[in-house]
Specification:
Helix content: under 10%
CATH superfamily: YVTN repeat-like/Quinoprotein amine dehydrogenase
Structural class: mainly beta
Distance between the termini: 30 Å
Number of helices: 2
CATH architecture: 7 Propeller
Strand order of the largest sheet: 1-12-11-10-9
CATH class: Mainly Beta
Shape: globular
Number of strands: 29
């Protein structure tokens, strides 16, 4: 195993504030492209002339419970970023623990406007931020608000990290979206892969080559890992699978990696589904849900025949498809980039709306729930006027809470839904909308958990 320490690992002074200065505007390739383009256009409208994020508000002393401490809310106009902390009830724990306005004192790499949180929660009061534009990981202490380290995952190219999954204090995985067309200049620079890192040492250790998972596809199709979940010693990695330009896509697939030896155990082809970017595991780990937006071909209109939602059951023989919904069965729009289990039998996800164009009427974004036991999909929330404004959805099933980012309503809020709050134990009831940081006009986009 190779270990490589990043030059961005700083010598830390815990009394100093976080560093994070403003970055250039997010590029179309900073995340999965069609979504980045349309979300960036919406963000430009919502975030136009928004003030810079205010000073940091420090950490939180909220206790850790059965669902951890709370949610990480990342607000952004794709030029500036602010990271706040909410309880699962919606109470503000820290309005801005870090932002693009944080004093540039400690860290080597500033926080850009294209930052996201891991798909799976971290524990022990720790936070990790993935800066996709800068290809940098930033660790923070949620208690003190201090930055505890930083690590570049670029290895000589714009890696565009999409997700971070921690196995132990000494091992974590980082999904790097972009391929490296000229590898070999430095260690671990293959790209479009799963990078193995040591969080404690802030070091690069190894990489998992995902190209075997693309067997049978033309060589111009790259794996493009987007999200991952860890279940009982297996890392499940969702591959979006596209060409370098993103204009052509292959069928998406799930790769199972054994965390003991980092070997690929199985590849599950999601037949007929393209552009899959949303992945979640149920609380028991018995099921995985995948949301697929279809291919876009360079504009904001998805190929609906390639879009849908699929739930897979985990078993001794691997993953078995349990339920599938086409985009048409779910409504008028394809699933978005986020999905969550509100309970073992209820899946919550967003859909992507569209503007009126080509004689077609506009379509709203939605937050939609499906019951695996049967019944029609239920729309819980709609965008008001601007499509691509509903962002990430995150659930804490053990606490019966779900949160969804809304960049449009009242300048940007986080909605709370309570699971089983009504007569129906599977019902989701809207229980309020909350501003994370009313001092600044940055709309919430992404939600993590800690």
């Amino acid at each position: 195993m190779m270990m490589m320490t990043s030059s961005l690992t700083p010598t830390l002074n815990p009394t100093l504030h976080r560093t994070l200065s403003q970055s250039p505007r997010r590029s179309a390739r900073s995340s999965l492209p069609a979504l980045a383009l349309v979300a960036g256009a919406a963000g430009a409208l919502l975030g136009c002339n928004a003030p810079a994020p205010p000073e940091d508000t420090g950490g939180t002393d909220a206790p850790e419970g059965p669902c951890g401490i709370g949610a990480v809310v990342i607000s952004s106009d794709y030029q500036s970023t602010s990271v706040g902390l909410l309880s699962w009830d919606g109470a503000v724990l820290s309005a801005s623990i870090a932002s693009s306005a944080s004093a540039p004192v400690v860290l080597s790499a500033p926080l850009s406007g294209d930052v996201t949180a891991p798909n799976m929660p971290l524990h022990g009061g720790r936070l990790v931020l993935l800066d996709r534009s800068a290809s940098v990981l930033t660790w923070l202490d949620a208690r003190s608000g201090d930055v505890t380290g930083q690590l570049s995952v670029a290895t000589g190219f714009a890696a565009n990290p999409q997700d971070y999954v921690e196995v132990s204090p000494a091992k974590a995985y980082v999904l790097r979206l972009e391929p490296n067309l000229a590898p070999g200049a430095q260690p671990l620079d293959g790209g479009s892969d799963v990078l193995v890192v040591d969080p404690g040492a802030r070091a690069l250790v190894d990489r998992v080559d995902l190209s075997p998972a693309m067997a049978g596809e033309a060589p111009e199709f790259h794996p493009r890992p987007s999200r991952a979940v860890l279940v009982e010693g297996s890392l499940y990695v969702l591959l979006t699978a596209s060409t370098l330009s993103f204009l052509d896509t292959a069928e998406s697939r799930l790769v199972e990696i054994d965390t003991r030896d980092d070997a690929i155990k199985a590849v599950t082809l999601l037949e007929g589904l393209h552009g899959c970017t949303g992945l979640a595991a149920s609380a028991s780990g018995a099921r995985l849900a995948v949301a697929c937006s279809g291919s876009f071909g360079g504009d904001s209109t998805s190929t609906l025949a390639e879009a849908g939602l699929v739930v897979l059951a985990r078993g001794e023989g691997g993953l078995v498809e349990e339920r599938r919904w086409t985009a048409g069965e779910l409504g008028e729009a394809p699933p978005g980039f986020s999905v969550a289990f509100a309970s073992e039998d209820t899946v919550l996800f967003t859909t992507l709306g569209r503007d009126a164009s080509g004689g077609e009427r506009p379509v709203d974004d939605t937050l939609t729930a499906v019951d695996l036991a049967g019944g029609e999909p239920a729309v819980l929330l709609r965008s008001q006027e601007l499509p691509f404004s509903l962002g990430e959805v995150r659930c804490a099933a053990a606490c019966g809470r779900c949160l969804v980012a809304d960049a449009e309503t009242d300048g940007g809020v986080v909605h709370r839904f309570d699971v089983g709050a009504g007569a129906d134990s599977r019902a989701l009831v809207h229980a309020g909308a909350f501003h994370v940081d009313p001092r600044v006009g940055l709309p919430p986009r992404y939600i993590g958990a800690f």
